[in-house]
């Protein structure tokens, strides 16, 4: 009977350990990142703007945030490291250079980035087409006003997050 209980306890511990390890995401080391003298803030993991949150071969852009005019690899990097709320770029400012190619360091205007077909016009590196799913976090979009960002992602504890004009809540995507 004692051996049976020991086996059960050992099995339980193995399952618990395996479950705990499976739930942990690997943590990539954060580095200081600069591209052509431009600082990349947040949690970059290489010198092509990949970060702890987004690090595929195609995740090679950084976005200059309208609120602070600093480049971050993604919205989560800004949310986790900036001391202020983000704000989206209004359509009137889509000519502003706010996208940085992590491969060659070319700065693109927002509209130029939209029109690029997910390819850097300077070095022909491919950008992640999935980034378009998050445009509403960075740029005013057709179906939203600047202060009216509403989706299931903007909810906290089942309630709508407070969003002052030109600001959106900190989100994790």
TrEMBL record:
Zinc-finger among keywords: yes
Pfam families: zf-CHY
Keyword terms of this UniProt record: Metal-binding, Zinc, Zinc-finger
Entry coiled-coil feature ranges: none
InterPro entries: Mito_Tim_assembly_helper, Znf_CHY, Znf_CHY_sf
Name of the protein: CHY zinc finger protein
Organism lineage string: Bacteria, Pseudomonadati, Bacteroidota, Cytophagia, Cytophagales
Residue stretches making up the CHY-type domain: 44-125
Keyword Zinc-finger in record: yes
Signal peptide: none
